[in-house]
Amino acid sequence: xxxxxxxxxxxxxxxxxxxxxxxxxxxxxxxxxxxxxxxxxxxxxxxxxxxxxxxxxxxxxxxxxxxxxxxxxxxxxxxxxxxxxxxxxxxxxxxxxxxxxxxxxxxxxxxxxxxxxxxxxxxxxxxxxxxxxxxxxxxxxxxxxxxxxxxxxxxxxxxxxxxxxxxxxxxxxxxxxxxxxxxxxxxxxxxxxxxxxxxxxxxxxxxxxxxxxxxxxxxxxxxxxxxxxxxxxxxxxxxxxxxxxxxxxxxxxxxxxxxxxxxxxxxxxxxxxxxxxxxxxxxxxxxxxxxxxxxxxxxxxxxxxxxxxxxxxxxxxxxxxxxxxxxxxxxxxxxxxxxxxxxxxxxxxxxxxxxxxxxxxxxxxxxxxxxxxxxxxxxxxxxxxxxxxxxxxxxxxxxxxxxxxxxxxxxxxxxxxxxxxxxxxxxxxxxxxxxxxxxxxxxxxxxxxxxxxxxxxxxxxxxxxxxxxxxxxxxxxxxxxxxxxxxxxxxxxxxxxxxxxxxxxxxxxxxxxxxxxxxxxxxxxxxxxxxxxxxxxxxxx
Length: 541
Known about the structure:
Layout: H1 6-20, E1 24-32, E2 35-41, E3 45-51, E4 58-61, H2 64-69, H3 80-89, E5 93-98, E6 105-113, E7 119-127, E8 134-139, E9 144-148, H4 191-194, H5 200-209, H6 213-220, E10 229-230, E11 235-236, E12 246-247, H7 251-298, H8 303-315, E13 326-331, E14 336-341, H9 348-392, H10 396-409, E15 427-431, E16 434-438, H11 442-452, E17 458-462, E18 470-472, H12 482-494, E19 503-510, E20 514-515, E21 526-527, E22 531-536
Antiparallel strand pairs: 1-2, 2-3, 3-4, 5-6, 6-7, 7-8, 8-9, 10-11, 10-12, 13-14, 15-16, 16-18, 17-18, 17-19, 19-22, 20-21
Protein backbone atom coordinates (compact mmCIF):
# COMPACT_ATOMS: atom_id res chain seq x y z
CA UNK A 1 0.00 0.00 0.00
CA UNK A 2 1.28 3.46 -0.89
CA UNK A 3 0.50 6.76 0.81
CA UNK A 4 -1.52 9.72 -0.38
CA UNK A 5 1.00 12.30 -1.59
CA UNK A 6 1.20 15.99 -2.42
CA UNK A 7 0.98 15.52 -6.19
CA UNK A 8 -2.21 13.46 -5.92
CA UNK A 9 -3.77 16.03 -3.60
CA UNK A 10 -2.84 18.86 -5.96
CA UNK A 11 -4.34 16.99 -8.94
CA UNK A 12 -7.52 16.30 -6.95
CA UNK A 13 -7.82 20.00 -6.07
CA UNK A 14 -7.36 21.13 -9.67
CA UNK A 15 -9.87 18.55 -10.91
CA UNK A 16 -12.63 19.51 -8.45
CA UNK A 17 -11.98 23.23 -7.86
CA UNK A 18 -14.89 24.35 -10.03
CA UNK A 19 -17.33 22.15 -8.10
CA UNK A 20 -16.18 23.38 -4.69
CA UNK A 21 -16.28 27.11 -5.35
CA UNK A 22 -19.80 28.40 -4.76
CA UNK A 23 -21.09 25.11 -3.33
CA UNK A 24 -22.66 24.87 0.13
CA UNK A 25 -21.84 22.45 2.91
CA UNK A 26 -25.23 20.93 3.72
CA UNK A 27 -24.45 18.18 6.21
CA UNK A 28 -21.51 17.09 8.38
CA UNK A 29 -21.19 13.56 9.77
CA UNK A 30 -18.38 11.90 11.71
CA UNK A 31 -18.59 8.07 11.65
CA UNK A 32 -15.42 7.64 13.76
CA UNK A 33 -12.85 9.92 15.35
CA UNK A 34 -10.73 9.65 12.21
CA UNK A 35 -13.14 9.97 9.29
CA UNK A 36 -15.74 12.50 8.17
CA UNK A 37 -18.46 12.70 5.54
CA UNK A 38 -19.48 16.12 4.19
CA UNK A 39 -22.55 16.45 1.96
CA UNK A 40 -21.76 19.32 -0.42
CA UNK A 41 -24.30 20.76 -2.83
CA UNK A 42 -23.09 22.57 -5.93
CA UNK A 43 -24.07 21.69 -9.47
CA UNK A 44 -24.99 18.35 -7.85
CA UNK A 45 -24.82 16.86 -4.37
CA UNK A 46 -21.66 14.92 -3.55
CA UNK A 47 -20.31 13.28 -0.43
CA UNK A 48 -16.80 14.40 0.44
CA UNK A 49 -14.95 11.77 2.48
CA UNK A 50 -12.02 12.77 4.69
CA UNK A 51 -9.90 10.15 6.41
CA UNK A 52 -7.08 11.08 8.78
CA UNK A 53 -6.15 7.56 9.85
CA UNK A 54 -2.33 7.18 9.74
CA UNK A 55 -2.66 4.07 7.56
CA UNK A 56 -5.11 5.31 4.92
CA UNK A 57 -5.24 9.11 5.14
CA UNK A 58 -6.85 10.63 2.03
CA UNK A 59 -9.68 12.77 0.69
CA UNK A 60 -12.16 12.03 -2.12
CA UNK A 61 -15.79 12.04 -3.18
CA UNK A 62 -17.69 8.83 -2.45
CA UNK A 63 -19.94 6.68 -4.58
CA UNK A 64 -22.40 4.06 -3.29
CA UNK A 65 -20.01 1.16 -3.84
CA UNK A 66 -17.07 2.74 -2.02
CA UNK A 67 -19.40 3.89 0.78
CA UNK A 68 -20.35 0.25 1.39
CA UNK A 69 -16.74 -0.97 1.17
CA UNK A 70 -15.70 1.44 3.90
CA UNK A 71 -18.58 0.20 6.08
CA UNK A 72 -19.45 3.77 7.05
CA UNK A 73 -21.87 3.78 9.99
CA UNK A 74 -23.13 7.10 11.32
CA UNK A 75 -23.43 7.13 15.14
CA UNK A 76 -26.60 8.36 16.78
CA UNK A 77 -24.67 10.79 18.97
CA UNK A 78 -22.20 12.98 17.02
CA UNK A 79 -18.77 13.66 18.58
CA UNK A 80 -17.97 17.11 19.98
CA UNK A 81 -15.78 18.17 17.04
CA UNK A 82 -18.53 17.20 14.61
CA UNK A 83 -20.99 19.39 16.51
CA UNK A 84 -18.51 22.26 16.44
CA UNK A 85 -18.11 21.95 12.66
CA UNK A 86 -21.89 21.90 12.25
CA UNK A 87 -22.19 25.08 14.27
CA UNK A 88 -19.68 27.03 12.18
CA UNK A 89 -19.87 25.48 8.70
CA UNK A 90 -23.21 23.81 7.97
CA UNK A 91 -25.23 25.72 5.40
CA UNK A 92 -22.42 28.11 4.46
CA UNK A 93 -20.85 28.71 1.07
CA UNK A 94 -17.38 27.61 -0.01
CA UNK A 95 -15.44 30.52 -1.49
CA UNK A 96 -12.13 28.88 -2.33
CA UNK A 97 -10.11 25.66 -2.16
CA UNK A 98 -6.37 25.36 -2.51
CA UNK A 99 -3.29 23.31 -1.69
CA UNK A 100 -0.28 25.26 -0.37
CA UNK A 101 2.91 24.59 -2.39
CA UNK A 102 4.45 21.22 -1.50
CA UNK A 103 2.14 20.73 1.49
CA UNK A 104 -0.29 17.85 1.93
CA UNK A 105 -2.91 20.28 3.20
CA UNK A 106 -6.29 20.74 1.53
CA UNK A 107 -7.76 24.10 2.51
CA UNK A 108 -11.48 24.81 2.19
CA UNK A 109 -12.45 28.46 2.79
CA UNK A 110 -15.96 29.40 3.94
CA UNK A 111 -17.93 32.59 4.19
CA UNK A 112 -19.61 32.38 7.59
CA UNK A 113 -21.02 34.53 10.39
CA UNK A 114 -20.10 34.95 14.04
CA UNK A 115 -22.37 35.35 17.08
CA UNK A 116 -22.83 39.07 16.30
CA UNK A 117 -23.98 38.21 12.78
CA UNK A 118 -20.79 39.68 11.35
CA UNK A 119 -19.36 38.13 8.20
CA UNK A 120 -16.16 36.15 8.86
CA UNK A 121 -13.84 34.02 6.78
CA UNK A 122 -13.13 30.52 8.08
CA UNK A 123 -10.75 27.88 6.81
CA UNK A 124 -10.98 24.14 7.27
CA UNK A 125 -7.41 22.85 6.91
CA UNK A 126 -7.32 19.13 6.17
CA UNK A 127 -3.77 18.01 6.92
CA UNK A 128 -2.98 14.64 5.34
CA UNK A 129 0.43 13.90 6.83
CA UNK A 130 0.58 10.32 8.11
CA UNK A 131 0.50 10.04 11.90
CA UNK A 132 0.28 13.85 12.08
CA UNK A 133 -2.92 13.98 10.02
CA UNK A 134 -5.50 16.36 11.44
CA UNK A 135 -8.43 18.64 10.63
CA UNK A 136 -8.24 22.21 11.93
CA UNK A 137 -10.91 24.87 11.77
CA UNK A 138 -9.56 28.40 12.19
CA UNK A 139 -10.63 32.00 11.73
CA UNK A 140 -8.73 33.52 8.82
CA UNK A 141 -9.32 37.09 10.06
CA UNK A 142 -7.66 36.48 13.44
CA UNK A 143 -5.67 33.36 12.47
CA UNK A 144 -7.05 31.72 15.64
CA UNK A 145 -7.88 28.03 15.86
CA UNK A 146 -11.53 27.31 16.70
CA UNK A 147 -11.14 23.57 17.06
CA UNK A 148 -9.19 20.47 15.94
CA UNK A 149 -10.04 16.86 15.35
CA UNK A 150 -7.02 16.04 17.56
CA UNK A 151 -5.47 18.58 19.91
CA UNK A 152 -1.67 18.61 19.92
CA UNK A 153 -0.08 19.66 23.20
CA UNK A 154 3.54 20.54 24.03
CA UNK A 155 4.25 16.96 25.08
CA UNK A 156 3.60 15.88 21.47
CA UNK A 157 5.07 18.82 19.60
CA UNK A 158 7.21 21.68 20.90
CA UNK A 159 7.15 23.49 17.56
CA UNK A 160 3.44 23.45 16.78
CA UNK A 161 0.67 23.26 19.34
CA UNK A 162 -2.84 22.78 17.96
CA UNK A 163 -5.91 23.54 20.09
CA UNK A 164 -8.72 26.06 20.35
CA UNK A 165 -7.40 29.59 20.99
CA UNK A 166 -3.88 28.98 19.61
CA UNK A 167 -2.70 30.67 16.39
CA UNK A 168 -2.72 28.47 13.29
CA UNK A 169 0.62 28.04 11.53
CA UNK A 170 1.74 25.72 8.78
CA UNK A 171 3.95 22.77 9.74
CA UNK A 172 7.68 23.64 10.04
CA UNK A 173 9.43 23.75 6.68
CA UNK A 174 11.52 20.73 5.83
CA UNK A 175 15.16 21.19 4.98
CA UNK A 176 14.58 20.38 1.31
CA UNK A 177 15.05 22.18 -2.00
CA UNK A 178 12.63 23.08 -4.80
CA UNK A 179 13.20 20.64 -7.65
CA UNK A 180 11.85 23.14 -10.20
CA UNK A 181 14.98 25.22 -9.58
CA UNK A 182 17.34 22.27 -9.88
CA UNK A 183 19.30 21.64 -13.09
CA UNK A 184 21.81 18.97 -12.13
CA UNK A 185 21.94 15.22 -12.51
CA UNK A 186 18.91 13.25 -11.31
CA UNK A 187 19.72 10.99 -8.36
CA UNK A 188 16.49 9.05 -8.10
CA UNK A 189 17.23 7.50 -4.71
CA UNK A 190 17.65 10.97 -3.16
CA UNK A 191 14.56 12.74 -4.55
CA UNK A 192 12.47 12.12 -1.42
CA UNK A 193 15.33 13.13 0.91
CA UNK A 194 16.52 16.26 -0.94
CA UNK A 195 13.47 17.79 -2.65
CA UNK A 196 9.94 18.84 -1.74
CA UNK A 197 6.91 17.20 -3.34
CA UNK A 198 8.33 13.68 -3.74
CA UNK A 199 6.87 10.73 -1.88
CA UNK A 200 8.82 7.50 -1.67
CA UNK A 201 6.31 5.80 -3.99
CA UNK A 202 6.60 8.59 -6.58
CA UNK A 203 10.39 8.42 -6.30
CA UNK A 204 10.35 4.66 -6.96
CA UNK A 205 8.03 5.07 -9.95
CA UNK A 206 10.34 7.68 -11.48
CA UNK A 207 13.41 5.53 -10.87
CA UNK A 208 11.82 2.42 -12.38
CA UNK A 209 10.97 4.35 -15.55
CA UNK A 210 14.20 6.44 -15.67
CA UNK A 211 12.28 9.69 -16.16
CA UNK A 212 14.45 12.63 -17.25
CA UNK A 213 14.82 15.93 -15.41
CA UNK A 214 12.51 18.05 -17.58
CA UNK A 215 9.79 15.42 -17.59
CA UNK A 216 9.90 15.18 -13.78
CA UNK A 217 9.40 18.96 -13.60
CA UNK A 218 6.41 18.67 -15.93
CA UNK A 219 4.98 16.02 -13.61
CA UNK A 220 5.41 18.26 -10.57
CA UNK A 221 3.72 21.21 -12.28
CA UNK A 222 0.91 19.00 -13.67
CA UNK A 223 1.92 19.99 -17.20
CA UNK A 224 1.95 16.38 -18.44
CA UNK A 225 -1.35 14.82 -19.47
CA UNK A 226 -3.04 13.34 -16.41
CA UNK A 227 -4.14 9.76 -16.95
CA UNK A 228 -5.11 8.31 -13.55
CA UNK A 229 -4.47 4.59 -13.15
CA UNK A 230 -4.06 1.98 -10.47
CA UNK A 231 -3.38 -1.66 -9.75
CA UNK A 232 -3.66 -3.71 -6.57
CA UNK A 233 -0.42 -2.29 -5.10
CA UNK A 234 -0.15 1.32 -6.27
CA UNK A 235 -1.71 4.23 -8.10
CA UNK A 236 -0.50 7.25 -10.07
CA UNK A 237 -2.03 10.24 -11.84
CA UNK A 238 0.37 9.34 -14.69
CA UNK A 239 -0.49 5.88 -16.00
CA UNK A 240 2.89 5.48 -17.74
CA UNK A 241 4.60 5.24 -14.34
CA UNK A 242 2.97 1.96 -13.20
CA UNK A 243 2.78 -1.47 -14.81
CA UNK A 244 -0.26 -3.70 -15.34
CA UNK A 245 -2.58 -0.83 -14.53
CA UNK A 246 -6.24 -0.07 -15.05
CA UNK A 247 -7.17 3.40 -16.31
CA UNK A 248 -9.92 5.25 -14.43
CA UNK A 249 -12.06 8.21 -15.39
CA UNK A 250 -10.76 10.74 -12.89
CA UNK A 251 -8.26 11.44 -10.14
CA UNK A 252 -11.11 11.19 -7.64
CA UNK A 253 -12.11 7.73 -8.89
CA UNK A 254 -8.49 6.61 -8.65
CA UNK A 255 -8.23 7.76 -5.01
CA UNK A 256 -11.69 6.42 -4.09
CA UNK A 257 -11.19 3.00 -5.69
CA UNK A 258 -7.71 2.45 -4.31
CA UNK A 259 -8.32 3.50 -0.73
CA UNK A 260 -11.81 1.98 -0.44
CA UNK A 261 -10.26 -1.37 -1.42
CA UNK A 262 -7.47 -0.88 1.13
CA UNK A 263 -9.93 0.06 3.86
CA UNK A 264 -12.13 -2.90 3.03
CA UNK A 265 -9.13 -5.25 3.24
CA UNK A 266 -8.04 -3.77 6.58
CA UNK A 267 -11.58 -4.11 7.93
CA UNK A 268 -11.90 -7.68 6.66
CA UNK A 269 -8.63 -8.68 8.32
CA UNK A 270 -9.75 -7.11 11.60
CA UNK A 271 -13.16 -8.85 11.54
CA UNK A 272 -11.61 -12.19 10.56
CA UNK A 273 -9.16 -11.96 13.45
CA UNK A 274 -11.96 -11.05 15.86
CA UNK A 275 -14.15 -13.94 14.70
CA UNK A 276 -11.29 -16.43 14.80
CA UNK A 277 -10.47 -15.41 18.37
CA UNK A 278 -14.10 -16.11 19.26
CA UNK A 279 -14.69 -19.34 17.34
CA UNK A 280 -11.33 -21.11 17.68
CA UNK A 281 -11.56 -21.58 21.50
CA UNK A 282 -15.00 -23.16 20.98
CA UNK A 283 -13.58 -25.49 18.32
CA UNK A 284 -10.63 -26.39 20.59
CA UNK A 285 -13.00 -27.04 23.48
CA UNK A 286 -15.12 -29.48 21.45
CA UNK A 287 -12.05 -31.19 20.04
CA UNK A 288 -10.60 -31.70 23.53
CA UNK A 289 -13.96 -33.03 24.73
CA UNK A 290 -14.07 -35.51 21.82
CA UNK A 291 -10.58 -36.76 22.67
CA UNK A 292 -11.46 -37.19 26.37
CA UNK A 293 -14.65 -39.09 25.60
CA UNK A 294 -12.80 -41.32 23.13
CA UNK A 295 -10.23 -42.07 25.83
CA UNK A 296 -13.00 -43.03 28.24
CA UNK A 297 -14.57 -45.37 25.71
CA UNK A 298 -11.23 -46.99 24.95
CA UNK A 299 -10.85 -48.03 28.60
CA UNK A 300 -11.68 -51.63 29.56
CA UNK A 301 -15.42 -52.20 29.46
CA UNK A 302 -16.55 -53.87 32.71
CA UNK A 303 -20.27 -54.09 31.91
CA UNK A 304 -20.11 -57.63 30.44
CA UNK A 305 -17.93 -58.81 33.35
CA UNK A 306 -20.43 -57.53 35.94
CA UNK A 307 -23.32 -59.29 34.18
CA UNK A 308 -21.39 -62.54 34.00
CA UNK A 309 -20.59 -62.40 37.73
CA UNK A 310 -24.23 -61.72 38.58
CA UNK A 311 -25.47 -64.60 36.38
CA UNK A 312 -22.94 -67.06 37.81
CA UNK A 313 -23.80 -66.12 41.39
CA UNK A 314 -27.52 -66.62 40.71
CA UNK A 315 -26.90 -70.03 39.13
CA UNK A 316 -24.88 -71.12 42.21
CA UNK A 317 -27.09 -69.77 44.98
CA UNK A 318 -27.81 -73.21 46.49
CA UNK A 319 -24.28 -74.56 46.25
CA UNK A 320 -22.70 -71.89 48.49
CA UNK A 321 -23.36 -70.13 51.75
CA UNK A 322 -24.12 -66.47 52.43
CA UNK A 323 -21.82 -63.89 54.00
CA UNK A 324 -18.55 -65.01 52.43
CA UNK A 325 -15.86 -62.85 50.82
CA UNK A 326 -15.59 -64.83 47.55
CA UNK A 327 -17.16 -67.67 45.60
CA UNK A 328 -15.57 -70.17 43.24
CA UNK A 329 -17.73 -71.10 40.24
CA UNK A 330 -17.26 -72.73 36.87
CA UNK A 331 -17.15 -70.33 33.87
CA UNK A 332 -18.81 -72.23 31.02
CA UNK A 333 -17.78 -69.65 28.40
CA UNK A 334 -14.07 -70.02 29.12
CA UNK A 335 -14.32 -73.62 30.42
CA UNK A 336 -12.51 -72.96 33.72
CA UNK A 337 -13.09 -72.18 37.38
CA UNK A 338 -13.04 -68.52 38.43
CA UNK A 339 -13.28 -66.71 41.75
CA UNK A 340 -15.80 -63.90 42.18
CA UNK A 341 -15.14 -61.35 44.97
CA UNK A 342 -18.11 -60.78 47.27
CA UNK A 343 -19.19 -58.41 50.02
CA UNK A 344 -19.21 -60.62 53.11
CA UNK A 345 -21.78 -58.36 54.73
CA UNK A 346 -24.32 -59.33 52.05
CA UNK A 347 -26.07 -62.55 51.08
CA UNK A 348 -25.33 -64.22 47.75
CA UNK A 349 -28.59 -62.91 46.33
CA UNK A 350 -27.77 -59.40 47.47
CA UNK A 351 -24.29 -59.69 45.90
CA UNK A 352 -25.84 -60.76 42.60
CA UNK A 353 -28.16 -57.74 42.71
CA UNK A 354 -25.16 -55.52 43.42
CA UNK A 355 -23.38 -56.82 40.31
CA UNK A 356 -26.54 -56.35 38.23
CA UNK A 357 -26.68 -52.75 39.40
CA UNK A 358 -23.01 -52.23 38.46
CA UNK A 359 -23.76 -53.76 35.06
CA UNK A 360 -26.72 -51.45 34.49
CA UNK A 361 -24.76 -48.39 35.62
CA UNK A 362 -21.76 -49.25 33.45
CA UNK A 363 -23.97 -49.90 30.42
CA UNK A 364 -25.88 -46.62 30.83
CA UNK A 365 -22.61 -44.73 31.34
CA UNK A 366 -21.20 -46.13 28.11
CA UNK A 367 -24.33 -45.22 26.17
CA UNK A 368 -24.24 -41.71 27.58
CA UNK A 369 -20.55 -41.28 26.69
CA UNK A 370 -21.25 -42.50 23.14
CA UNK A 371 -24.07 -39.97 22.80
CA UNK A 372 -21.93 -37.16 24.21
CA UNK A 373 -19.11 -38.07 21.86
CA UNK A 374 -21.45 -37.97 18.85
CA UNK A 375 -22.64 -34.50 19.89
CA UNK A 376 -19.07 -33.32 20.47
CA UNK A 377 -18.00 -34.56 17.02
CA UNK A 378 -20.91 -32.70 15.40
CA UNK A 379 -20.10 -29.50 17.32
CA UNK A 380 -16.39 -29.84 16.57
CA UNK A 381 -17.16 -30.06 12.84
CA UNK A 382 -19.61 -27.17 13.13
CA UNK A 383 -17.00 -24.81 14.57
CA UNK A 384 -14.45 -26.11 12.09
CA UNK A 385 -16.90 -25.19 9.30
CA UNK A 386 -17.27 -21.68 10.74
CA UNK A 387 -13.47 -21.25 10.85
CA UNK A 388 -13.30 -22.37 7.22
CA UNK A 389 -16.01 -19.87 6.26
CA UNK A 390 -14.18 -17.06 8.07
CA UNK A 391 -10.90 -17.80 6.34
CA UNK A 392 -12.50 -17.99 2.89
CA UNK A 393 -14.89 -15.03 3.12
CA UNK A 394 -14.23 -12.53 0.35
CA UNK A 395 -16.60 -9.74 1.33
CA UNK A 396 -17.67 -7.78 4.38
CA UNK A 397 -21.24 -8.95 3.85
CA UNK A 398 -20.22 -12.61 4.21
CA UNK A 399 -18.26 -11.79 7.38
CA UNK A 400 -21.23 -9.91 8.84
CA UNK A 401 -23.39 -12.99 8.19
CA UNK A 402 -20.93 -15.08 10.20
CA UNK A 403 -20.90 -12.40 12.90
CA UNK A 404 -24.72 -12.60 13.03
CA UNK A 405 -24.42 -16.35 13.57
CA UNK A 406 -21.94 -15.83 16.43
CA UNK A 407 -24.29 -13.25 17.97
CA UNK A 408 -27.18 -15.75 17.77
CA UNK A 409 -24.99 -18.31 19.54
CA UNK A 410 -24.29 -15.78 22.28
CA UNK A 411 -20.52 -15.70 21.73
CA UNK A 412 -20.47 -11.95 21.09
CA UNK A 413 -22.71 -9.10 22.10
CA UNK A 414 -25.08 -7.83 19.44
CA UNK A 415 -23.69 -4.73 17.74
CA UNK A 416 -26.49 -2.27 17.03
CA UNK A 417 -24.22 -0.31 14.65
CA UNK A 418 -23.41 -3.35 12.52
CA UNK A 419 -25.26 -3.51 9.18
CA UNK A 420 -28.23 -5.88 9.17
CA UNK A 421 -27.91 -8.95 6.96
CA UNK A 422 -31.57 -9.83 6.53
CA UNK A 423 -31.26 -10.04 2.75
CA UNK A 424 -28.75 -12.78 2.04
CA UNK A 425 -27.63 -12.88 -1.57
CA UNK A 426 -26.19 -16.24 -2.53
CA UNK A 427 -23.75 -16.48 -5.41
CA UNK A 428 -25.06 -18.45 -8.37
CA UNK A 429 -23.51 -19.34 -11.70
CA UNK A 430 -24.64 -21.15 -14.84
CA UNK A 431 -23.22 -24.52 -15.85
CA UNK A 432 -24.38 -25.99 -19.17
CA UNK A 433 -27.73 -24.24 -18.92
CA UNK A 434 -28.33 -25.11 -15.23
CA UNK A 435 -28.34 -22.60 -12.38
CA UNK A 436 -25.97 -23.57 -9.56
CA UNK A 437 -25.98 -21.97 -6.09
CA UNK A 438 -22.86 -21.76 -3.90
CA UNK A 439 -23.22 -21.32 -0.12
CA UNK A 440 -20.28 -19.45 1.41
CA UNK A 441 -21.17 -19.88 5.10
CA UNK A 442 -23.63 -21.63 7.40
CA UNK A 443 -26.35 -19.00 6.97
CA UNK A 444 -26.16 -19.29 3.20
CA UNK A 445 -25.95 -23.09 3.33
CA UNK A 446 -29.03 -23.19 5.55
CA UNK A 447 -30.93 -20.87 3.22
CA UNK A 448 -30.08 -23.06 0.23
CA UNK A 449 -31.59 -26.11 1.95
CA UNK A 450 -34.59 -24.43 3.59
CA UNK A 451 -35.71 -21.86 0.99
CA UNK A 452 -34.08 -22.18 -2.41
CA UNK A 453 -34.03 -25.92 -3.04
CA UNK A 454 -36.80 -28.14 -4.45
CA UNK A 455 -37.18 -31.92 -3.94
CA UNK A 456 -35.60 -32.89 -7.28
CA UNK A 457 -32.67 -30.47 -7.10
CA UNK A 458 -29.23 -32.07 -6.64
CA UNK A 459 -27.12 -31.26 -3.59
CA UNK A 460 -23.31 -31.58 -3.55
CA UNK A 461 -20.79 -31.49 -0.69
CA UNK A 462 -17.18 -32.45 -0.15
CA UNK A 463 -16.77 -35.75 1.70
CA UNK A 464 -15.47 -35.59 5.30
CA UNK A 465 -14.30 -31.96 5.03
CA UNK A 466 -15.56 -28.42 5.53
CA UNK A 467 -17.02 -26.84 2.44
CA UNK A 468 -19.83 -25.07 0.65
CA UNK A 469 -23.23 -26.56 -0.05
CA UNK A 470 -23.62 -26.64 -3.83
CA UNK A 471 -27.14 -26.86 -5.28
CA UNK A 472 -27.94 -27.72 -8.89
CA UNK A 473 -31.44 -26.45 -9.73
CA UNK A 474 -33.63 -28.70 -11.86
CA UNK A 475 -36.24 -26.99 -14.06
CA UNK A 476 -38.91 -28.65 -16.19
CA UNK A 477 -37.59 -32.11 -15.29
CA UNK A 478 -34.48 -31.49 -17.39
CA UNK A 479 -31.80 -33.87 -16.07
CA UNK A 480 -28.10 -32.95 -16.05
CA UNK A 481 -25.59 -35.07 -17.94
CA UNK A 482 -22.44 -36.59 -16.42
CA UNK A 483 -20.32 -33.62 -17.48
CA UNK A 484 -22.57 -31.18 -15.60
CA UNK A 485 -22.56 -33.39 -12.51
CA UNK A 486 -18.77 -33.55 -12.60
CA UNK A 487 -18.50 -29.75 -12.99
CA UNK A 488 -20.63 -29.32 -9.86
CA UNK A 489 -18.39 -31.81 -8.04
CA UNK A 490 -15.36 -29.77 -9.07
CA UNK A 491 -17.12 -26.71 -7.69
CA UNK A 492 -17.76 -28.48 -4.35
CA UNK A 493 -14.05 -29.36 -4.15
CA UNK A 494 -12.97 -25.83 -5.09
CA UNK A 495 -15.02 -24.27 -2.28
CA UNK A 496 -13.83 -26.65 0.41
CA UNK A 497 -10.92 -27.26 2.75
CA UNK A 498 -9.77 -29.96 0.30
CA UNK A 499 -9.42 -27.49 -2.58
CA UNK A 500 -5.65 -28.03 -2.86
CA UNK A 501 -5.73 -31.83 -2.43
CA UNK A 502 -4.72 -33.92 -5.42
CA UNK A 503 -7.97 -35.85 -5.12
CA UNK A 504 -11.08 -35.62 -2.98
CA UNK A 505 -14.42 -37.38 -2.74
CA UNK A 506 -17.60 -35.40 -3.40
CA UNK A 507 -21.00 -36.77 -2.44
CA UNK A 508 -24.26 -35.81 -4.09
CA UNK A 509 -27.91 -36.72 -3.75
CA UNK A 510 -31.35 -35.29 -4.45
CA UNK A 511 -32.69 -32.64 -2.11
CA UNK A 512 -35.61 -34.86 -1.08
CA UNK A 513 -33.13 -37.26 0.53
CA UNK A 514 -31.70 -34.52 2.76
CA UNK A 515 -33.05 -33.74 6.21
CA UNK A 516 -32.16 -31.18 8.82
CA UNK A 517 -32.61 -32.68 12.32
CA UNK A 518 -34.60 -30.65 14.88
CA UNK A 519 -32.48 -28.13 16.80
CA UNK A 520 -29.48 -28.93 14.59
CA UNK A 521 -26.67 -26.42 14.04
CA UNK A 522 -26.91 -24.06 11.09
CA UNK A 523 -25.88 -25.80 7.89
CA UNK A 524 -25.97 -29.31 9.41
CA UNK A 525 -27.91 -31.96 7.46
CA UNK A 526 -28.19 -35.73 7.24
CA UNK A 527 -28.65 -37.52 3.93
CA UNK A 528 -29.19 -40.88 2.26
CA UNK A 529 -29.08 -42.48 -1.20
CA UNK A 530 -25.90 -40.52 -1.89
CA UNK A 531 -23.36 -41.21 -4.62
CA UNK A 532 -19.69 -40.32 -4.61
CA UNK A 533 -17.36 -39.02 -7.29
CA UNK A 534 -13.61 -38.61 -6.81
CA UNK A 535 -12.40 -35.30 -8.22
CA UNK A 536 -8.78 -35.17 -9.33
CA UNK A 537 -6.72 -32.00 -9.39
CA UNK A 538 -5.07 -31.22 -12.70
CA UNK A 539 -1.28 -31.57 -12.54
CA UNK A 540 0.57 -28.39 -13.53
CA UNK A 541 3.27 -28.93 -16.12
